[in-house]
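User: quick one, fold this
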Amino acid sequence: MSTRWRFVVCWCCCSQRLRRWGDGADMTKSLWFYLKNIFINPVAAAEGIATEKKQMASTHQPGSFPDGLREASWLSIGIVLVFDLLSTLLLFANVHPLVVVFLPWVLVIGVGIFLLGKLRFSDLGIFPARIIPAILCGLIIWCIIQLLAAAALFFLQGKTSWGSVMPGYLVDQLLFFAIAEESIYRGYLFPQLYLKLKRARHFSAGAYWIALFLSQAIFSLYHLPHRLANNTPIEDLPFQLVLLWISGLLLCYVYLRSQNLLVAVVVHALGNAPSIIFSHTTLPWYVITLIVWTAAIAVIEIGRRLSFFTRKAD
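Assistant:
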């Protein structure tokens, strides 16, 4: 085999392995195996590529949900959506804010998901053994956010200065808003719609992507009453709803890549309350959003390569 074809086969081997969403150790081992065989037995290596492509085509899925995932009933899904909508409509009524906060927990999650759906915390991607990794991941992401924010401020202003931080807002996000929305829309609605559509005759082929896009579209529309209650201009609503939909898709990515819903909760909370310790009033909102997602994606991808998220759930 000529040097040119050896290079082509080598490139194919590397590209096939890099496309797989395996952990870093598996990828390194496989790359070493293929590179070694390129020069020893290139024909066998080429045959191995063809075999692996067939296996990937038959077994590869865009993402994976928790093992032993239970399937809820359509009644449970309907109750969750109705109760969640009612909780947002309370924004137009003169009720105490705590009622709006606790209603999703009591009715939506407690009744709709656990009582009627008969699901467990593990079905939502929440495991006790993964709490500490989620906290560590959140701390690392927060530190990177501070570094990137300082760099952005220095680039735009030529200097940085200390600012005021409101940790209470971040705590509210972690304990109430972010964890409730992640449990409902990423931990519950997305996988449950996937399970339902997978058994449907006309939607089974694209069940994963339909469930992904549909569940996050519902997540986006869920924020519509909140935007109207805050007197958001009508012309700005489509743009904001599209941004929310994209944010939902990215949070699904965070959940599936980390295999830990609590990591998505932390990223969600930091997205709403980045808690930057520098004075950042001059930073545009899209710069802050870019900083948060850059830090989150970098930490998650590096964590995957280092097998940080592969600890088994107890």
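User: anything notable?
Assistant: Residues 3-59 form one domain.
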